[in-house]
Alpha/beta hydrolase
Amino acid sequence: MTFEHSRSDGTVRTYRHAPTRSVTARGITYAYRELGPRGGIPVVFFVHLAATLDNWDPAVVDPIAQHHHVIAFDNRGVGASTGAVPDTVEAMADDAYAFITALGLDTIDILSFSLGGMVAQALVLKHPELVRKLILTGTGPAGGKDIDKVAGTTYYDILRATLTRSDPKEFLFFNRDDAGKAAGRAFVTRLEQRTEDRDLKIGTKAFQTQLKAIKRWGRCTPADLSRITVPTLIANGDNDRMVPSALSDDLHRRIAGSQLVIYPNSGHGGIFQYHHEFASTAIEFLDQ
């Protein structure tokens, strides 16, 4: 499937060509990219552990941006955003709120992945009036079983990737069978489509601080997710080694009226392995 780079009105429709912009809030300058038609409720993308603006899969972003205003941003202290990375998910949610309100937005939809899903949960619990619809993928709740083990899994897979001269995401996000390996290679190739105006990579200290925040999230008191009353879509692969797939079921049980999609024979990056199916499901959910 191919998409128009831009329309005659100058609207950018592909993530590869979205310019990097910045906005300052509470002394922090946030880097972000936006694309798609203006005027409707924007879909703000909350990114994963160690990720910058360059880590969003265009095969997910571009279909959504054909009919929705999409905004992706770097968390504080990550990529081209200034400041220091917070060591709690709740503080990251406060930063996200500062960024969103600095853009003058008072109603948004959220599409989140992994750590981004944790930040999104904290945000909607604190500012329920801000969010119209919520998409949580590859993520889990505060106090979720084995979330505090993410660091160990991450370092192990980074080592495996280093020994094979591969991208760590091929191990962290995808199964190591033939289908998973092919999906991982294709995913990494798509991330490399953008050749100009690339983002800065996350620093080691920032990465370690994010891992510390995830460990705290996994060990903290569970939140009352019955307070999340906005329409919610939950998605994951059936073999998520980073944030166990069972936690997606847990979210589904605890968020009333939520929808759950589990993709077969896939891992943490199930939404990227099944990007056609996921993008269609996400668009249908947003348009309902």
About this structure: The domain at 15-287 is CATH 3.40.50.1820 (Rossmann fold). The two ends are 23 Å apart (CA to CA).
